[in-house]
Amino acid sequence: MRKHANRVAPRLDDGEAGAQFAVDPRPARRVPRSLQRPIGGCNMRYSFILLAAAIVAVPAAAAGPAEDATVSVTSTLDRFNGGDVAAFLQAHRDDAVIIDEFAPYVWAGAGTAQRWVADYSRDAEARGISGGRVDYGAAVQAVSDGNSAYIVLPTTYSFTQNGRRMASPGHMTFVMSRDGGDWKIASWTYSGGTPAPQ
Hints:
Blueprint: E1 6-12, E2 19-27, H1 41-57, H2 65-81, H3 85-90, E3 92-99, E4 106-107, H4 112-126, E5 129-136, E6 141-144, E7 148-161, E8 164-179, E9 182-192, E10 196-197
Parallel strand pairs: 3-9
Antiparallel strand pairs: 1-2, 3-4, 5-7, 6-7, 7-8, 8-9, 8-10
């Protein structure tokens, strides 16, 4: 076994103005190499590599039910804007409740979405409206218990009326419910101001 050098410890003698040094009889202890932590160098590099690997290994947070329901709503609005009436209808429960700004203002019971589409078309034709679309922003409220969800979107309903482009800012509020693995619209309400020229 290798002998260790003796450590030198400072000692003050009474009455003397400086420190004298005396030899400490205990052998010096070596710190094992595995416990040495140099600043920089290999250990720092390995620490950085481990940190980077941990960050990469952490999976992205999975979307929750409120986010999934919101995606279902916005996809439905995109289909409506694209003229895909069949997909818009399919997104609703058969007994959905709809509240909107034109008569009869509330639709409920079997075939609700189909009746709303028919009434919307009649109202638009009577008022000289075409090119209706609903643009939306990020949800201002989106909560879910896993089986149902409540979502509020800021919206702008825009259309052409008698050759003039019109718009109305407002909100749409949706209640969604699970149907198997899919989200379906259980109800929605449109709340907006009086349309104004763009």
